[in-house]
Amino acid sequence: MLIQALNLCINGSASLMQYIAEVQKFPMLSQEEETRLAKNWHQYKNISSAHKLITSHLNLVVKIAMKFKNYGLLLMDLIMEGNIGLMHAVKKFNPNLGFRFSTYAVWWIEASIKDFILKSWSFIKIGTTQAQRKLFFSLRKIKKRILQYTNRETLSNEEIKAISNELAVSEGDVIQMSYRLAYKDQSLNSCLKVGDGSKKELQDMIPCNSVSQEVTYQNHEEKELKETILNNALANLNERSRDIFISRYLSENTQTLDELGKKYNVSRERIRQLAEQAMSKVKQYIQSESLKLNLYV
Question: Model's pTM, two decimal places?
């Protein structure tokens, strides 16, 4: 329902400027009005109160999204992701704790936008720990602060070391992230010239390394066939040998020779012999069947 309310409030705007103009029409709430609406939603799930809370803070989302406009992504996409964070904030906000909703919502909005940016940057693969995420979102600003009074575009070794200490990451992470941030992703729909002078979209020139459906099906069929052969091999063993083989080689919690010896009231050496004999029979059966079917095992 919150998503439906948000769709109504943006009125289907396709233009960024139109959207910003629309959200600026929604008035800011007084603290008393904000608290009343938040309690109506928190206690009674009043959708109109949630809708008003969202619409009155859409402009806040725009302001926060603007801070991330230099990451090579569409500002409208960042705003929409921030709106999702805003809706989560409305759902989670507890007005009885005494905080302003906007203070609480900022964290959710920024977190949603940052997650979207990290997922969208195909080059960024190390943003897993909190320190590395901080490096991604802080390095551009720190580099600008350091290099603004120099003619250099790259960091010195001393500067890299200082940044690594400040952000609690390795110097290698700083170097790698600096390199990655210097290059923006290229749209797969961008056109490139080919040898004959014609143009093709980048996505048409990238080889597909994923496994085809035919190969996937073939692998599935081969796996099932191998399982069938193994089950038939086990069926050729007597009950005791089959149990020993499974307990020793196929079970997640393998049993020791001593445990099996106590189970069958024989020595551990006898269990070892029976296990080897069972293994030999299973191997012989599998090899024989595989040769018949020309199957690689």
Answer: 0.50
